[in-house]
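Take a look at the protein record below and tell me what you see:
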Amino acid sequence: MSGKKSGMVLKKNDRIVFFGDSITEQHLYTNYVETYLATRFPGLNLSFLNAGWGGNSAPEGAARLDRDVLALKPNVVTICFGMNDGYYCEMRDEILKFFSDAMNEIVKRLKAAKVRVVLLTPGMVDHSRKKELAEINYSGRNLRILADFVLSLAKREHLPVYDIHKLMTEVDAAAKKDSPDFTMIPDSVHPDPAGHLVMAYGLLKALRVPPLKTSAQTNLKTEKFIAGKDIKISGIRPLEMGFEFNVKLDHLPFFVQPDARKILKYVRFMEEYSDFRLVFRGVKGKRHYFKTGAFRSEMITSEELEKGINLSAIWNNPYSRKAELIYKLTNEKDQLFYRMWRELALNGKSGTDYNRMVHISGIRTSLFLEKIRNEIIDDPIKENSFKMLDCDLPGEPIDNNDFISCWSLRGPFKSEVKKDITDFIGCEETITSTIPHLSDEWKEGTLNIENPENSLNMFFGDSINTCCYLMTIIESPVDQEASLLLGSDDGFAVWLNGKCLESKLDLKRGLKVDQERFQVQLKKGPNPLMLKVSQGDGYWGVCARFAGLSKVVSAIRPNQYK
């Protein structure tokens, strides 16, 4: 959506300033866009600064334009005002006048300074979260009227623009149709990471960033390879239960934070802007999964492999982990600039007590950190080896040395850790002798297998003198012997198929991988596995995996077992 169709707005060595209110100050949609552009176009040597200010309306933005925006010497300024300009009351004519006058002034002054201007409309509010805003239809009336003005301003001034109010409203409606309690704006005004991802999509559209859709294809029967522009598959090697292959990317994919992924079903961010597709034809078997190092994907069908799997959307692979690092560096850099500008240069105020040199130091620091970030991005992307393993079992595939992440959990229970053998759930041993139907007190959980030291803190929070239970069903395709390896902080007890293998609940220790080893017999079919972990204070966590398996098994939460 723009008043003038052309190529991408950005040019080499551009400095981009994000200008807006508290939603811009959240450093979320802006950091998504910054990270995306920095990783996709490293040769452009772009730099970025955030000039968002919480509580601002457009007139307040105009008042600080010289100090907070033009002083940064930008080539491009993106503008997103309007949320506060509706004044959270019944719409009146003067509200639109205040907003339009200020936006006209901001655009006029930026264009006079030879700055390229990119506009976003205001977003939306979630009426389901604030009754008083629903009563006046703040989103459908106030924000829609202001959004329409932004669109008309862009048309008149021939500026790139995107209607994120319309986009967010449509995405929210689609998500609420599937789940009425859904929200991407928890306090009704400020989007969460998922809502900001929708905004980032809109800003990339406004910047006219071209789509990124590429694929590498291989046919296992003919051994024919077709490399894409930015991705290739090579070196396919057969394995007993699948095959191994190498992947090479020319640049990093986009990494979406876990708390933003809920929105990907409703906005085509990955399909349009980070589609690194792996296509495999002639694959044997029905269900498969990728594996590289400790990472493994969810189950993938042969039909899905024929259509192609987007490597970007297979989280925690080596490429997305590096992309996540870049995102974290961006956050740290932007927060440091914010502190030097707002907390030091302005002493947290908007008045005249302003230290220009500290502000300039913040700019220089940001540029230095971007240089370091760019060096990390420019570090050659390694070719990574992946395994595609067959597993016709349902649930989470578990091969040798794969941590089990799929559990049902219950707790925490207040406990005197030392020698506490209290049965908090009743019939601890008999619950694992068959496949139980667990009560609602058990919750489905996925443990953080990349950082098992605090895996239970992330699920239960910090606890003192407590314990908890974890349960899963290990489905084995054959009778087989194996070693069950366990690490815990603090103590533990473990049951398999109704038998307590060990109980050391009085331990007080930090977690190390594979602190305990048990020789076990897995029978063909379901093998209920339950852990109990005791906690003193500080971090607490647990990790479990198998070694010596002759065949891949799978982990299934009890209530999902069929």
